[in-house]
Amino acid sequence: MDSLSTAVKKMDEDLSSVEAYKKAKEHLSGLTPEEMQTYIKMREMKVDQEAYQKMMDAKRKTFDTWSVWGGSGRQKFSLDLWDPSQQVNRAKAEELKLRARKLSKRIIDGSGINVLLAGKAGTGKTAMALAMVEALRVHSDKTVMFVSTIALSDKIHNFYDNQVQEMVNYTKKLMKEVDVLVLDDFGSEAGGMGNSDKTASEPLQKFFFEVADARQAKDEFGKRIKTNIVTTNQKITGGNNSLEHSYHEKIISRLIAKKEANQLIFGGMEDLRE
Where is the AAA+ ATPase domain positioned along the sequence (predicted)? Predict the structure, then answer.
């Protein structure tokens, strides 16, 4: 009985689609030549839009799949979830949220910029960067790639595994190409490999210079098209615990935001990790 009912329902659906097709044909036969041309153009536009959307979905999936996550695994956050009331300095937290929203809009509107989120550990820098990324995914077609620099460093220094090195090279290629690159915890990887001086190793210096240099690309009008969002626990300048000490100045110049308007400084924010 169930199978018969299903078969009857399928026949009804088929007949319905046939009737709809007949009606559509009747309407089309009554169009003027000008109206028919408009109809054809609209249909072609729809096909083009669908093809473009499929292409963009595939691109976004590639960059998402090749993102390099840290020990916590894949993460997601949004500006709506950023709760200033969790901080003692609520006014500062509100300001950071507002400025992050404005920076996200600038990127959505087409600006290729450097954004810096700096402050001590646990104050919400990564969460804010993820929230900005989510805004870009929802409100634009921009491709995004998230890279934990500590996790990436482990792969870069795995010299003796050819398969890993092939993966590193492909990751580097994507990092050069993606519209928006997030470098999370940048600078923390520089103290690895037994390096107490906290200067990045030669392989790290070479890797990040190649990426940073490629991301200076401009369009035909000379407008920068790539955005870098960097989170760090370090200061830009000032002693051994600074980005300028860890990396060559050419890398810092290309990756780190210098304009105050592009910097989100989490000073005064409390460590919210339990």
Answer: 111-266
